[in-house]
Automatic annotation (TrEMBL):
Key words, A-Z: Acyltransferase, Endoplasmic reticulum, Lipid biosynthesis, Lipid metabolism, Membrane, Transferase, Transmembrane, Transmembrane helix
Acyltransferase is among the record's keywords: yes
Regions that span the bilayer: 21-41
Enzyme Commission numbers on file: 2.3.1.-
Predominant location category: endoplasmic reticulum
Gene encoding the protein: mogat2
Family of this protein: Belongs to the diacylglycerol acyltransferase family.
Broad enzyme group: transferase
GO molecular function: 2-acylglycerol O-acyltransferase activity; diacylglycerol O-acyltransferase activity
Topology class, membrane: Multi-pass membrane protein
PANTHER family xref list: 2-ACYLGLYCEROL O-ACYLTRANSFERASE 2, DIACYLGLYCEROL O-ACYLTRANSFERASE
Name listed for the protein in its UniProt record: Acyltransferase
Localisation per UniProt entry: Endoplasmic reticulum membrane
Source organism, top-level taxon: Eukaryota
Length: 335
């Protein structure tokens, strides 16, 4: 394979964009184990007191992720995230207002490999979420596993991330003043295994937990489709039924995280690496589906609302797909 190297004379703006995405990819893939290693390593050095003091802090702060986390607005608004937005670029599109007196459950589709659109749109201020939806505070859900990593847990909480377990996810929705939006990549880690360019498989047909959560708390449902999310990485072929998919699914069920064998470009060359391609991502926020509070919904009521949500997501996709180069004969496939 012939390696295509990046030209030497790259504009500074593009270099800064690449650097910002590089740190994000590192944070997503390697920062948690790095923090765990650092925490343990410091215990055996003359700086052992840092880890001991942090352990004491961790003990008293243990429940913070389950109580809405600890977003730091200054960090969410750093110029760093503007460079990341412009790398792809990423854009947020609004189709309807969200009433700040109401709480919401936002379903994000598809998951993609590294949920670049969800992070950039709902954890940073770079695409204008605060201006488009004034009075709404977004909380992106992340696997609880990552909140058990010292130092790393504090870093991700700064961006408004909270654990995806039931208790943590429901906390913002219990706030009666409204204005909270819980953002769920509904397909989760398993859907990442289907994140191939040109794929429009959405893992949703049997996903009803977020529907019930919305009903129990009377939170309106908001479908979101992120066009281009599956295009920024290639992935080794893993059709359902193959030995590779079998191994990936079993590892996912055991570890709680999926391991897609993805690749794209590098930092100094465009032929291979773990950096995403510079391809546009446009995240379209649909109209809210009104939900009446029902603390004990029946199976029939859950099924009806679930079907309504799928219909709204499908309509959102059909309405906007032509604007983003999706062929007319392509439709969402609910798995």
């Amino acid at each position: 394979m012939k390696v295509q190297f990046a030209p030497l004379e790259v504009p500074l703006q593009r270099r800064l964009q690449t650097a910002s995405v590089l740190q994000w990819v590192f944070s997503f893939l390697a920062l948690a184990p790095t923090c765990i290693f650092l925490f343990i390593y410091l215990l055996f050095t003359r700086f052992w007191l840092i880890s001991v003091l942090y352990a004491i802090w961790w003990y008293y702060d243990y429940d913070t992720p389950a109580r809405g986390g600890r977003r730091v607005p200054y960090l969410c608004g750093l110029k760093l995230w503007d460079y990341m937005r412009d790398y792809f670029p990423i854009k947020l599109v609004k189709t309807a207002d969200l009433d700040p007196r109401q709480n919401y459950v936002i379903g994000f589709h598809p998951h993609g490999v590294l949920v670049a659109g969800a992070f950039t749109n709902f954890c940073t201020y770079s695409t204008g979420f605060k201006k488009l939806f004034p009075g709404i505070t977004s909380h992106l859900l992340m696997l609880p596993l990552w909140f058990r990593a010292p130092f790393f847990r504090d870093y991700i909480m700064c961006a408004g991330l909270i654990p995806s377990d039931k208790e943590s996810a429901c906390y913002p929705l219990r706030q009666k003043k409204g204005g909270n939006a819980v953002v769920i990549a509904v397909g989760g880690a398993p859907e990442a295994l289907d994140a191939h360019p040109g794929s429009y498989d959405v893992l949703l047909a049997k996903k009803k937990g977020f529907i019930k959560m919305a009903m129990v708390h009377g939170a309106h449902l908001v479908p979101v489709f992120s066009f281009g999310e599956n295009e920024v990485f290639d992935q080794v072929g893993n059709p359902r039924g193959t030995w590779l998919r079998w191994v990936q699914e079993n590892l996912q069920s055991f570890m709680g995280i999926s391991l897609p064998l993805f690749h794209a470009r590098g930092v100094f060359q465009y032929s291979f690496g773990l950096m995403p391609y510079r391809k546009p991502i446009t995240t379209v926020v649909g109209r809210p589906v009104k939900v009446e509070k029902n603390e004990k919904p029946t199976a029939a009521q859950l099924d009806a609302l679930h079907q309504l949500y799928m219909d709204e997501l499908s309509n959102l996709f059909e309405e906007h797909k032509g604007s983003f180069g999706v062929d007319e004969d392509i439709h969402l496939n609910f798995v």
